[in-house]
Design a protein that fits this description.
Largest sheet: 5 strands, mixed
Number of helices: 32
Distance between the termini: 36 Å
Strand content: 5-15%
Keywords: Membrane, Transmembrane, Transmembrane helix
Organism: Chrysodeixis includens
GO molecular function: acyltransferase activity, transferring groups other than amino-acyl groups
Number of domains: 3
Radius of gyration: 28 Å
Domain Acyltransferase: 266-642
Domain Nose resistant-to-fluoxetine protein N-terminal: 58-176
């Protein structure tokens, strides 16, 4: 399966390792596998094959919908997807039966003893043949393809091709294409698809029922709101808050407000929005199923030109930094150490409730509607994530998926929420000492916590000897044991807490030359981090890799947190002006919804493809803008109808409305929530 192996090599983000599970021969409850077996009938297959042989139109139709040699083999394309919709759309009544199409994907390879007319040692051939050979060697070296062959001649006979075929429903590929054996081809069935092969399940019924109730409440609440404010001309303050909780008018006004409230940190809007845009950009590449010129993509991803995409994984550390920063910034002055312990249940409950509505919505969508969002030859990738949500939803909602189901998570990016929530649950261990009011004790606790986590994570990294990225060399399981591990991802959170404490308790005065020196150092640090990430994607010494994994993320957090601190103290200049533009506010408010929804939607849209796309930076940019626009619209609707209403309900239930400091705390808490993407 050369194509899928190659995709794993060029991916730098978590998600495609998870989606790789779609190639395992396991039962996928998102598709009706019993239907595939029930339609098989040896005698009926032979009968329908005879009709096809005797009818030139039928023979041409089935041939046109399937088997052909892939185009662009020398550019890394080893798949031909046929004509999926043409095959499944065929239906003709025969005298004794109904002839319908079945779409199957076969893994086809040439016999290794086949004398292919290209000679690897002949330099007169296209240089891309050599590149393919080198690429095959990398597959062997990474031990990801499961193939351990050498090729003294051309590498092409050893490549596995994925070829689509169209056949009558009662047939198996072996029965329909027995002539392939005569040609010396080795093949096996990867999967088959039939019309209406995605059954309705309880999750679909639950989703319809829940979203129907929410839709009804939205219509009812909006009608009440408009009637009270526009027809009865009542003062908005006198209108029932509960009655307008689901109102599109009221919630839309809140979401679309561009004015700032006191206590907000303006630059956070820009940082949050740009970081979220960066995450979507990185996933635009890694959620793409395949490209017909994957060799060019491979070469591009190894070049400096791809830095703006391949460095996107560092954006998540920005969110960890913001989360730790706002945790301290919003807690100091709100609680004392004793009050925190007394109200720790509310401290944890408030955190969990604010995340729950959107997280539950995204989980339910991926467990139900996503499986019916579209269809295509590559739909099994979507179906695999649907199954993960149907079986592992509990790990997502309890924020334990990074340990319980790290390779089969429902909502790929939700591992961040698990780590962040775990850090919030443990944070009172430090917060208690910080909130005692003694500065020395507070700083000792904060810096002691950072040093302890750095020492522990560094020791762990040196023991496990991870690679520096998802497809690099290393002894440990990078994704499961490093990328989603709370220990290895906690340091940015601690850095954020330290700067949140300084921002809340102290101000600084700097001279112009000091400000200039800071920005030169800060921008130099950020540039070093980004380029170091690219340099270490190549094979590096393991000691270098260990230090990189241990310190690159806290260094990035140092850059982000110090930038915020300078902006708060009035030394941000044009950078603060840009990050504080009102334009970023709505993007910032929607960032959490975008984070949860974008990858599933992008996978579903990409799975519509009926042929490999052509890779270029221009098409990549266009597709990114299309993805972001679409996800932005969906996120806006979800925030409007689910997140905003339930946020109001939770405030009413917890009794926040009666507190004197409610308005100020609400503003800051809103900022804090947006920081969690």
């Amino acid at each position: 399966m050369a194509t899928k192996t190659f995709l794993v090599l060029i991916n730098v983000i978590t998600f495609n390792l998870v989606s790789g599970s779609v190639w395992l021969d396991v039962r996928n409850e998102a598709m009706d596998y019993e239907l595939y077996y029930n339609v098989l009938d040896y005698e009926l297959c032979e009968e329908q094959k005879a009709y096809i042989r005797d009818d030139p139109f039928l023979a041409a139709y089935f041939a046109d919908a399937g088997f052909r040699i892939p185009k662009g083999i020398l550019e890394g394309n080893f798949i031909d997807m046929g004509n999926y919709h043409q095959c499944l759309g065929f239906n003709q009544q025969l005298p004794t039966s109904e002839l319908q199409g079945k779409y199957c994907m076969l893994e086809v390879s040439l016999n290794p003893d086949f004398n292919f007319p290209l000679n690897y040692g002949n330099t007169s051939y296209d240089p891309k043949v050599f590149a393919l050979a080198e690429m095959k060697e990398k597959w062997k070296k990474y031990n990801m393809s499961g193939i351990h062959r050498s090729f003294p001649g051309s590498p092409i006979p050893y490549m596995g091709f994925l070829l689509a075929v169209c056949m009558p429903q009662p047939c198996t590929p072996q029965q329909a294409f027995s002539s392939l054996d005569i040609l010396g081809l080795q093949y096996r069935e990867e999967f088959c698809r039939l019309p209406n092969d995605r059954p309705w399940v309880p999750a679909d019924i639950v989703a319809i029922a829940i979203f129907s109730v929410i839709g009804f409440l939205t219509i009812l609440s909006t009608t009440y709101d408009v009637w009270q404010k526009f027809f009865l001309k009542k003062d908005p303050k006198s209108v029932s808050v509960l009655g307008t909780a689901f109102s599109v008018y009221t919630n839309g006004s809140r979401v679309m407000t561009f004015s700032s409230s006191g206590g907000n940190i303006e630059c956070l809007d820009g940082i949050r929005a740009l970081s979220m845009a960066w995450v979507v950009l990185a996933h635009t590449v890694t959620t793409e199923g395949m490209f017909q010129n994957e060799l060019e993509l491979y070469e591009w991803s190894d070049s400096w030109q791809s830095l703006w995409v391949t460095a996107g994984h560092i954006a998540v550390d920005t969110f960890f930094t913001l989360s730790g920063f706002l945790l301290l910034y919003t807690t100091i002055g709100k609680y004392t150490g004793k009050q925190l312990l007394k109200n720790i249940h509310l401290f944890w409950l408030n955190r969990l409730l604010r995340m729950f509505p959107l997280l539950a919505t995204a989980t339910l969508l991926e467990a139900s509607f996503y499986n019916r969002f579209g269809d295509g030859p590559e739909w099994r990738g979507v179906a695999a994530h649907v199954v993960s949500c149907r079986t592992n939803w509990w790990a997502t909602l309890t924020h334990t998926q990074n340990y319980m189901t790290p390779l089969f998570t429902c909502i790929g990016p939700s591992w961040y929420l698990a780590v962040d929530t775990q850090l919030h649950v443990l944070s009172p261990v430090l917060l208690f000492w910080v909130l005692l009011g003694n500065r020395k004790i507070a700083l000792t606790a904060l810096f002691g916590g950072l040093l302890a986590i750095l020492a522990a994570s560094t020791t762990y990294n040196f023991i496990k000897e991870f690679a520096t990225h998802l497809y690099g060399f290393g002894n440990g399981d990078y994704f499961k044991d490093y990328y989603v591990n709370t220990l290895t991802r906690a340091s940015p959170f601690f850095v954020g807490m330290i700067f949140g404490y300084f921002a809340k308790t102290s101000k600084i005065k700097l001279r112009k030359w000091q400000v200039l020196c800071f920005w030169v150092l800060a921008l130099s640090l950020s540039t070093f981090i980004l380029y170091a990430g690219h340099a270490t994607r190549l094979e590096v010494d393991q000691i270098v890799a260990n230090f990189y994994n241990s310190f690159i993320r806290p260094l990035w957090a140092l850059f982000v947190a110090s930038l915020i601190y300078m902006c708060i103290n009035g030394y941000g200049g044009p950078i603060n002006w840009f990050l504080s533009l009102s334009f970023w506010k709505i993007h910032s408010r929607l960032s959490f919804a975008i984070y949860l929804l974008h990858q599933g939607l992008m996978m579903a849209v990409n799975a519509w493809s009926i042929s490999p796309n052509y890779f270029s930076v221009k098409t990549l940019t266009y597709k990114y803008l299309s993805h972001y626009t679409f996800v932005f619209i969906v996120a806006f609707l979800v925030v409007l109808t689910i997140d905003a209403p339930f946020s109001t309900l939770f405030k009413l239930i917890l009794g926040a409305g009666g507190k004197k400091t409610q308005k100020k705390e609400t503003d800051v808490e809103s900022t804090k929530k947006e920081a969690t993407e």
